[in-house]
Specification:
Helix content is 73%, strand content 3%. It is mainly alpha-helical. Residues 11-79 form the HTH gntR-type domain. One of its GO terms (molecular function) is DNA binding.
Amino acid sequence: MEYNRETENKRLLYSKLSDKIYQYIKDENLRPGDKLPGERKLAAEWKVSRPSLREAIRELENQGIVHAEVGKGTFVTDYVEGRQFSIHLALKNFLELFEVKTVLERYSLEKAIPNISEERLNKLEDMAVQMNAIASTGIMPKEMDHHFHRYILECYGNQEMTNLVCNMIEMYETFDDELYGYFEEKDFDYFQILLKTFPYHLEMVQMMKERNVEEALKRYDKIVALDLEIYKRIE
């Protein structure tokens, strides 16, 4: 899948606007059935175009958080309330950012493999071995994992894409805090699933060293599948 800067920037804008609308609902203590201000008013106040605002509202409507009535306006629904309301919105925003991040990272991996130097491959292998060793003790090597994935992006050589993905990671980590708090309340040991990803990191690098793009991408997809397995647990 080709990277389209304009498309991804629009998706990020819509995601930020949907967050802003949710925050408005929360700050104003709006309840199910309450009406949001009109599009013209919000667009002028937030200095965004009405089409962009409309797309953000449509995203929330698709999630059942608001609903629009022709000629009447946009209203808060009774889909979820309180804590669950916040959890479902955090999940929705996280998954959208995660999807874009995954597409860009996978594309970078595919393009980097044929030309990546042996020196860089050895560095990736060293990181993967260390992460796997740490994970085998039951400890999550979070910072090292971030560095590993950033380094793959740097190996592709598109600095703009690297910065964009890193910014998205920072954004969705704000939702991670709320989602992981939910998992802890439900006594769900999500760490055990995350730890299962690290052997695939090492296998992926081994396939990269063999210049086997297809098999390397299969390992990457397994990592993503395990990550997503965690979020399927949200009721």
